[in-house]
């Protein structure tokens, strides 16, 4: 599945591509928050959860792939000039939902 992360951030956009019994466990320390998002959140007085619900926080697109396809998809993206980052995993659970682990780096 592919989720374009726009207004609504990861919190609202990622669940749209998940099954009804799936949870996305997102590791917030997997990528560095671009400085502009830290500045915007600070100027607006947004807590981390609200920033994740408002902005894409530097993650513009999420691809959910089967574990056995991860290496091939990662290689294809790198070949295309992209810099993919594994930000989490899908788990069974009361979903669709996003569960955040850790804090934004």
Q: Can I get a quick summary?
A:
The protein has 105 residues and is α+β, with helices and mostly antiparallel strands.
Work out the helicity level.
25-40%
Structural class: alpha+beta
Number of helices: 4
Radius of gyration: 14 Å
Instruction: Characterize the main sheet.
Output: 3 strands, mixed
The coarse silhouette is globular
Task: Describe the oligomeric state of these chains in a short phrase.
Answer: single chain
Strand order of the largest sheet: 4-2-5
Task: Give the strand tally.
Answer: 5
Q: What would your notes on this structure say?
A:
- The chain has 105 residues and is α+β, with helices and mostly antiparallel strands.
- It has four helices and five strands, in the order βαβααβαββ.
- The protein has a three-stranded mixed beta sheet with strand order 4-2-5.
SSE map:
Blueprint: E1 2-4, H1 9-13, E2 22-27, H2 35-44, H3 48-54, E3 61-63, H4 70-79, E4 88-92, E5 97-101
Parallel strand pairs: 2-5
Antiparallel strand pairs: 1-3, 2-4
């Amino acid at each position: 599945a592919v989720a374009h992360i726009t207004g609504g951030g990861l919190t609202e956009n990622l669940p749209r591509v998940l099954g009804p019994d799936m949870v996305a466990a997102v590791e917030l320390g997997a990528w560095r928050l671009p400085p502009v998002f830290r500045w915007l959140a600070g100027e607006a007085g947004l807590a981390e959860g609200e920033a994740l619900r408002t902005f894409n926080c530097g993650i513009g697109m999420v691809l959910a792939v089967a574990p056995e396809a991860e290496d091939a998809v990662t290689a294809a993206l790198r070949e295309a000039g992209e810099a993919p980052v594994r930000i989490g995993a899908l788990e069974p659970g009361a979903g669709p939902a996003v569960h955040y682990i850790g804090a934004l780096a």
